[in-house]
Design goal:
single chain, 337 residues, mainly alpha, 2 domains, 13 helices, 69% helix
């Protein structure tokens, strides 16, 4: 379900309020939050991989009602079939691929089958196998259902009760692995793929994760900067003896960070790790098959490289943790484990 700006304001207000309270307690002016850029998903035309169409003459042999594939061929040649969405085409290709595999095996097992027919059906199967990696890629990474999960603008994840954003992607990963490994593509798996696309259509969880990482990176760095400026200015405490100011700071840490910001970080990181990990597995599969476009290699680097969004979040998180450890240790206020 799409969400509005109220959710973004709720999360950003929480983070800004937390940072502002730290700045007031430490008497350090709150610096401007620096928001990292969210990498732009490459345009669809640059993501689309070419496929080879099967010659009409080869399909003629299947129009003779061999193996019950005639309805599928008629569907593909219909007006609706000519304007399939990438998701619809992927589902069709999975069905047809399983059908032609079964057909080839059936004809091979029948000693009465004409050898020319076996050869023609085998050629159709060969072409479908050749096309399969590109068809899978196009069906996933040129689909509007997926594209909206890489949008540049969205509300962040809510503060609680977020459904798993990676569940439908894991279904697509499983189907991709099954197809590339020549495993059975049964009707139940097709239903699961259809349900996964429907779920992705009703969600923008990926884009929400991007926005959450962007906000957290900015405000964790901002808060760490405040603490570091105070540490560089003069000690907050001497000989690990807490002052009234340090006690107030610890209360801010417990009430606004440990009780609010930290659980949200854990929620975002849990979903982000799973979501990113699923795409990583898919990208690796397609890379191994040689159908991952060069611009997607570059996009992955913007996500996961040394200066990528995920890495910058991790650096901000670690910097923020270290700053708090330094100032709380200085005052003998580190929480006991």
């Amino acid at each position: 379900m799409f969400v509005g700006c109220g959710q973004q304001n709720d999360v950003e207000d929480m983070l800004d309020d937390y940072s502002l309270r730290v700045s007031r307690v430490l008497d350090i002016e709150q610096p401007k939050a620096m928001f990292p850029a969210i990498p732009a998903f490459p345009p669809r035309r640059a993501r689309l991989q070419p496929t080879t169409e099967i010659r009409e003459g080869l399909l003629d042999v299947l129009k003779l009602k061999h193996c019950g594939l005639l309805p599928m061929i008629a569907e593909r040649n219909s007006s609706l079939g000519k304007v399939y969405t990438p998701a619809s085409r992927l589902i069709y290709e999975l069905k047809f691929y399983q059908g032609i595999r079964s057909c080839a095996q059936l004809l091979q097992d029948d000693p009465a089958t004409d050898r020319d027919l076996i050869q023609q059906v085998s050629e159709i199967l060969r072409l479908k196998q050749l096309n399969l990696p590109a068809e899978l890629w196009n069906g996933i990474y040129t689909a509007t259902e997926i594209e909206q999960h890489f949008a540049l603008s969205a509300a962040p994840l809510a503060r609680d009760n977020n459904p798993s954003p990676s569940a439908p992607m894991q279904t697509l990963l499983f189907a991709t692995q099954a197809a590339l490994n020549n495993q059975q593509i049964n009707a139940e798996l097709i239903k699961q793929v259809e349900a996964a696309y429907a779920e992705l259509h009703q969600s923008e969880a990926g884009a929400q994760i991007l926005q959450s990482l962007r906000l957290l990176t900015a405000y964790l760095n901002q808060t760490a900067n405040i603490i570091e400026l105070r540490l560089a200015e003069r000690p907050l405490c001497f000989q690990q003896q807490p002052t009234p100011q340090a006690t107030i700071l610890r209360n801010v840490f417990q009430k606004y960070y440990a009780a609010a910001v930290q659980p949200y970080m854990a929620e975002v990181q849990r979903h982000a790790s799973s979501w990113i990990g699923t795409h990583q597995q898919l990208w690796q599969l397609f890379e191994n098959e040689g159908v991952m476009p060069e611009n997607m290699h570059n996009y992955r680097a913007l996500w996961l490289g040394e200066q990528g969004l995920w890495r910058r979040y991790e650096q901000a998180r670690n910097r923020h943790t270290e700053a708090w450890q330094q100032i709380l240790m200085q005052c003998g206020l580190m929480p006991s484990r």
